[in-house]
Amino acid sequence: MTIEKWPRWADLPEFHALPHGWRLAYLTEVAEIVAGQSPPSETYNQRGDGLPFLQGCAEFGDEHPVTTVWCSEPSKRAPSGSTLMSVRAPVGDINRANQDYAIGRGLAALVATAADPDFLYYGLHRWRASFQRLGQGSTFEAVTARQLRQVVIALPSERDEQRRIAGTLRLTDHAIAKAREELDSARNLNRSLEDGLLTGQLDPRGRSKTKTRAGDLPQGWSVSPLKTLAEIGSGITLNQDRAAKENACRYLTVAHIQRGVISDDDPRFLELSDAERKHRLLETGDVLVVEGHASSMEIGRAALFEDQGEPTTFQNHLFRVRADRDQILPRFLLHILNSERVQRHWNAVCNTSSGLNTINRRNLRNVLVQHPDTNEQQEINDALDAAARNSAQVAAKVRALEDLKRSLLQNLLTGKIRVPEGAIHA
C-alpha cells in the first residue's frame, strides 16, 4: 500500500517516509466506527435509568466525560474503553469512554479491532487534522461516518510497538495529571495564605483580635479609608487629538490590567506633551485599578506598575493609586485591593449602566484598607511572594510536560522516535 493511492492525504509528511515496520491502513481496518444517533426524547431522564447520554464534546471533562442525562433506550452505544471523537463543530476533540455511554449525533466512538486501544486513542490526537480537514468547507462543520471511512492512518505493524508507544504517552499523561494536582494544591495554598494573612486570621504572633469595620483584626492593626493612605489619580481621555506623533507615550488600558499582572500584549501609544508628563507618567509602585467591566467579578481588579525605562501613562477607565509608603507598601496594598473582601465590597457598591459595572473615584477613596505596620506588611508580602513563586514554578512544570507530550505525539506517532523493546512495561 503506497501513498500515491491516496493523493488527498499527501500533505501528511509521515506518509511519505514510513519507518521500517510501519504501514498505511484505512481507519476502518483497525477500528469499528460507531456513529452517534440521538434517541427519542422520551427516553431521556435524570434518574440514572439506563446509560449516561453524551451529545457532544461539551460534556468532555478533564479526565472523562461528564453528563447529568441518561438514556433508557440508547440508539447507539459507545463501549467502555473506546475512543470518543466529536464529529460536529468543533470536529476532532478526543476523549476516552470510562464506561458504556449512549452517544448522540455530535459524537462517534472508535472501537479498536486490529490495533492496540491505547495506541488508537493517542493516534487519533495525531490524526485529528485529517478529520478537521474533512469538516471544512461546509456551512456547519461536521464529519460523516462515510467520510471517516476514507481516513488513512500510519501505524506500526507490530502490536507490541503500538503498546510501547501508548505506554510512553500514558506515563506522560500520568506525570501531567500529577503536576496539575500539585498546581491545584499550590494555588489553594496561595488562596488560603492570602485570606489568612491579609485578614490577620493567620497570625504568627498569636495576638488577640479586635472588632473593626473590616472584621476582626489582630491588635495593632489599623483600618483606614484608602484616601488617607494613597493619592488617587485619573487617566487620560482618548480622542483624535491624542494620536501619537512626535511625543508618543505608551499608555495602558483596561485590557492590559489583569489581576496582579500587567500584560505586554498589544502595546498602545498616544501623544503626551512634556508639560503633561510631569504629572501623568506612572512610577514604579503605582497600583492601577480597573474602573469598570461587564463582569462584576472583574471590576476593581488591580496590578502593580514597574517602570521598565519606557515612559508610560494610562487611560481614563483606570485609576492610579500612589501609596504613602510610610503607611502602606504598594505590594501589600495591591494584595488588599485584589482580596476577596474588597471584591465583595465592589459587588455591593458598584453602579451598573448599559451592561457595565463601574466604581467611581469616591467609591475608591472610601474603600477600607486593613493594615499592620510596614514591617509586618513586608513579612506578609514575602510569604505571599514565596507562595506565588512556588505556583509559578509548578505551572512552568505543567507547561513543560504538556510541551513534551506534544513533541512525543509528533515523533512517536510518526516513527521518528522508536521505543526500544523493554523500555516500557505496557
Q: What is the molecular shape? A: elongated
Mean pLDDT, to the nearest integer, reads 89
Beta-strand fraction estimate: 15-25%
The N- and C-terminal alpha carbons lie at a distance of 29 Å
What is the fold-level CATH name, i.e. the topology of the largest domain?
Adenine-n6-DNA-methyltransferase TaqI, Chain A, domain 2
Specify Rg, calculated over alpha carbons. 29 Å
Question: What's this entry about, in short?
Answer:
The chain is α+β, with helices and mostly antiparallel strands and about 425 residues long.
Would you kindly provide a written description of the structure presented here, covering whatever features stand out?
Strand 12 (209-212) and strand 13 (215-218) form a beta hairpin. The protein folds into three domains: 3-157, Alpha-Beta Complex (Adenine-n6-DNA-methyltransferase TaqI, Chain A, domain 2), CATH 3.90.220; 162-204 and 376-426, Helix Hairpins; 222-371, Alpha-Beta Complex (Adenine-n6-DNA-methyltransferase TaqI, Chain A, domain 2). It starts with 21 loop residues before the first strand and ends in a 14-residue tail after the last helix. The protein has helices at 27-30, 117-135, 145-148, 159-199, 274-280, 330-337, 340-349, 361-366, 374-412, and strands at 22-26, 31-35, 44-45, 51-54, 70-71, 77-78, 83-86, 94-96, 101-103, 107-112, 152-156, 209-212, 215-218, 222-225, 230-234, 248-252, 257-258, 261-262, 268-271, 287-290, 292-293, 302-304, 312-314, 318-323, 351-353, 356-358, 368-371. Helix 2 (117-135) crosses helix 4 and helix 4 (159-199) packs antiparallel against helix 9 (374-412). The chain is of the alpha+beta class. It contains nine helices and 27 strands. The strands form nine sheets. Strands 3-5-4-9-6 form a five-stranded mixed β-sheet, with no helix packed on it. The chain has a four-stranded antiparallel β-sheet with strand order 2-10-7-8. The chain has a four-stranded antiparallel β-sheet with strand order 15-24-20-22. The protein is elongated and about 75 Å long.
